[in-house]
Amino acid sequence: MVVLDLANNLFSGEIPYCWIKWQSLRVLRLDGNRVSGKIPISMGTLTKFQSLHLHNNRLHGEIPLSLKSCTNLVAINFGENELNGHIPGWMGHGLPNLIILILRSNKFGGNIPDHLCALTSLQILDLSNNHLFGSIPRFVMKGQFLEYGNTLNLVRHVDLSRNNLSGEIPQEVVNLQALQTLNLSQNHLTGKIPKLIGAMILIETLDLSQNQLTGSIPESISGMTFLSHLNLSFNNLTGIIPTSTQLQSFNESCYAGNHLCGPPLKGCRGSGKETDVKNRAKGIGKGREINWFYVSMPLGFVTGFWCVLGPLVFNRRWRTELWWKVYDLVGKF
């Protein structure tokens, strides 16, 4: 069997440990059930694994080291469980083909491992709503500084919101030229917004709300011509809001809880202390999440892939081109 899809049922109990007998399995979907217990160590024997979806269950414990052997994994979604421990650093070097990594809404703690920078094919990274702390990695490995643009040059969606991250937003983040969604809201980030943030010209969603950012809004943000959602509310920003068609079209609640002046704020109040502004900002303060309807499109595609186009797995060039087309489609949304 190549594909096993048991998603969205009412299955309960623990995941069986007999996976050593399923050596041909490439796609496993157990998401949307009531499965509990730990992720079986025996899943590490499935070296042909390409897509593993265990999200929206009741799993606990740590991610087993044995999965390091599944070097062909392209997509991992363990979101909406009760997994704990640290995010394994070996994922960076052990899973070189990973395109999607979703660990949102669990109980992971510790720092975000620097080694995730080695995932050069990564396009979706969602670590939101965990207990992560420390700073956003500057990706220093083996004593050498690695440019974001030379490593994570394909990443399109990054969501690190609702954690306990601190420190400054790395200036190097502006080198993520393909980035479309960046959500760092509801952390404890300090310092200034990167001066050249406008270099990320493909950004559609930018949420830095509910942090402790200071300084002014960089003028370069005016160059984000694709920006359709912006939330800078409830920081310690000061100064005049830069002028652009997008920036003045957003509701004033997007800037509430700061000390800003200029349109769309009325006059130079801009403190966000006004009752009407704060009320309108409540919903926005929760942060903008990735539209998982569109993310689910490539995930669902993987399942159908093995039913219809399985032979492509034996041709690496065809497989790479196929993934590019799928994620180019996601990028249009």
TrEMBL record:
Entry's family note:
Belongs to the RLP family.
User: Does the keyword Ligase feature in the UniProt annotation?
Assistant: no
- Tell me any Pfam family this protein matches: LRR_1
Extract the PANTHER family matched here: LRR RECEPTOR-LIKE KINASE, LRR RECEPTOR-LIKE SERINE_THREONINE-PROTEIN KINASE FLS2
Membrane topology, from the record:
Single-pass type I membrane protein
Can you tell me where the transmembrane regions are?
292-314
Tell me the domain of life. Answer: Eukaryota
Q: What is this protein called?
A: Receptor-like protein EIX2
Q: Which InterPro entries match?
A: Leu-rich_rpt, Leu-rich_rpt_typical-subtyp, LRR_dom_sf, RLP23-like
Species in which this protein is naturally found? Gossypium hirsutum (Upland cotton)
Q: What cellular component GO annotations does this protein have?
A: plasma membrane
Q: Which UniProt keywords apply?
A: Cell membrane, Glycoprotein, Leucine-rich repeat, Membrane, Receptor, Repeat, Signal, Transmembrane, Transmembrane helix
Where in the cell?
Cell membrane
